[in-house]
Amino acid sequence: MMTESQGRVVEVLGLPDGVDDELLTLYFENKRRSGGGPLHSVEKSEDRALLVFEEAEAAARVLSKEHHVVHNVELSVRKPASKDPCRFLLKGINPSTCIEMIELYVENLLNVNVPEYTLLPSTDNKLILIQLSQPLAQGRLLFRIYIFL
């Protein structure tokens, strides 16, 4: 998502089955009910949606309102997670995998050397956050993942 729209974006979680884009739009554009205002776009996927408001103030009002109910279901609203080009998360790791194996995997996958990244494992060792010293060149990660698949 473009940087200029970040303050205007709200993520909606827990959408009930059958709720359509038009109902979401009408609810979140209704200032009296949701606190919102005119929407620029609605992207719905399964039980969540990303709303981009025309004004950041409308998004802030929606986020500050405690309860949002559609189809008798209480929705959860939040700011979307930020995308950090210097951080990647490895999931589904066997906790007994040695750190050297993970380092080799990361170095081969991202084509980086030891001083260019740091590995930060979760307490249960099932997740590892990769912190890069600088962002990868655009498209480099996707190309490398494609090769390894």
Task: Explain what the structure shows.
The protein is of the alpha+beta class. It folds into 2 domains: 3-78, Alpha-Beta Plaits (2-Layer Sandwich); 87-148, no CATH class. Helix content is 29%, strand content 28%. It has 5 helices and 8 strands. The protein has helices at residues 21-29, 31-34, 56-64, 99-110, 140-148; strands at 9-13, 39-45, 48-53, 68-70, 73-78, 87-90, 117-121, 128-132. Strands 2-3-1-5-4 form a 5-stranded antiparallel beta sheet. Strands 6-8-7 form a 3-stranded antiparallel beta sheet, with no helix packed on it. A hairpin with a 6-residue loop joins strand 7 and strand 8. It is elongated, with a radius of gyration of 20 Å. The two termini are 26 Å apart. GO terms for molecular function: nucleic acid binding. It comes from Neogobius melanostomus (round goby). Pfam families: RRM_PARP14_3. InterPro entries: Nucleotide-bd_a/b_plait_sf, PAR10_RRM1_2, RBD_domain_sf. This is RRM domain-containing protein.
Keywords:
149 residues, alpha+beta, Alpha-Beta Plaits, five-stranded antiparallel β-sheet, elongated, PAR10_RRM1_2
Low-confidence parts: 142-149
Total strands: the figure is: 8
User: How far apart lie the N and C ends?
Assistant: 26 Å
Question: If classified by CATH, what would the architecture of the largest domain be?
Answer: 2-Layer Sandwich
What kind of oligomer do you see? single chain
The major β-sheet equals: 5 strands, antiparallel
SSE-based structural type: alpha+beta
Shape: elongated
Order of helices and strands: EHHEEHEEEHEEH
Radius of gyration: 20 Å
Total domain modules: 2
Spatial ordering of strands, largest sheet:
2-3-1-5-4
Please report which band the strand proportion falls in: under 5%, 5-15%, 15-25%, 25-35%, 35-45% or over 45%: 25-35%
Indicate the CATH topology of the largest domain: Alpha-Beta Plaits
